[in-house]
Give the backbone structure.
Amino acid sequence: MLSPQDQLTELVRTLETQQHVFATDPLLITEKLQGEDGKPIQKLHRRASRIDSNGALARVLGKIDGRIKGIMVVMSVVWCISGFLGLFTLLQTNVVNFFYVLVCLLGFHTVMLLGWLVMTLINQGKQSSNWFANFVSPSYLIRGKDDVTKAAVDLYERQLQHSGMRWYLGRFSHQLWLATLTGMLLAIVFLLIVRQYSFSWESTLLSDQALITLTQILGWLPSMVGFGVPDSTAIVQSRLVTDAMPLSVARQWAGLLVGSLLMYGIVPRAIAWAFCALMFRRKKMRLDIKQPYYQKILNFWQRHVVDADDFKEAPAPIAPKATVSTGKKLVALLEYPSEQNNWWLEGLDANINDNSEIEDFGIVDDRDDMDRLTSYLDKHPVQVLLGIHSKALPDRGTLRKLDRIAEHATDGLIVQLLGDTSLTDNGININADISNNAVSSTADLKKQTSAQVAGNQDVRYQQWQTALSARKIGLVDTK
């Protein structure tokens, strides 16, 4: 059986999948619990309790559980009374055949206990037939046509069919036997208090010595806990007794009878009951939170709620600042030409007047340009200043060219980003936009287009910042 909290949680899941209308909105409760602390299973229990704010679901589950347990209690009481009455009827004569009474007390019980032990060893890992589920089916215990009752009945029937229920049923079976043996023990104690019995024995096949040996073996365990056991003389004197016997001898036989009932009946059955209870706890049905329904809720709770005042945006990657060497340099443009003459002067030292130490390679675009540049770099140790136009995209092809140049530049590679001075966006001139769009003000259009171009250039600039930062390539600061 599931625990009461698990039962309520599972019932909420069943009803919610059936679009049941609860006393409290499940979505609202789920959102409120997102910020609360606790283990996932604890929060699921809390959620189910709050959804069932009026206790309607818990009452239905409690009613079914109460009636099942009530049946078990009534059956235990009936078995106890039957044991009491059975032994009370058996001990109506003053002279009692000891071994006959002992076989009536423990014979069938011992056979059933050994049979249960054998079947338990044989059926390890197998599910036994669930007669109890058919006997106490919740559909017989509670009547109702509403969704809650139907879902609760279905939940209990699924629990009764669980594989761990074999230990639950074993525990209940041992409980009934314990009730029967307890009733017998009460009857024996009561009758021994109010009546005086004589105990005898008789046998056609067994000799006196055989009965003496059997009695001593039988009395070994009861004597270990303090019960009296007849000695050899008392055993011989008790054969075929028909009248009252000495009280001391009768008390020895009475002690052996009570001790045998306790040590060979109640104690072994109590051990079996405890074993079944322990196994049922280990195999007990538990809430499966791996189901998609529960995983969806748990994933929602794991999302962090960020307050606007507490939110800190992660800083954008920034390329390292370029370090300009004092040696010879090679300048080149990547794919796009520049509208400025001597564009590299903006990024290099402004006092440089002698361009003899600067090799202008021109534009690097196709494969031949790349081969020519790498061959030159392999032969000449120079620092490469690569000019990249704002139109250039940091796509895979462009970045492969950049990586190849960096690999062959002996004295390092630095990059200078070149802006677009013609106020064009992806090669479309403002004048073309003005002529093709009906606007009320040419000045407003120019302002809008300028802002758009500036925004696009900022985005492209940050893209190159990210690419250069990942490659540890310095960026020339021209601002």
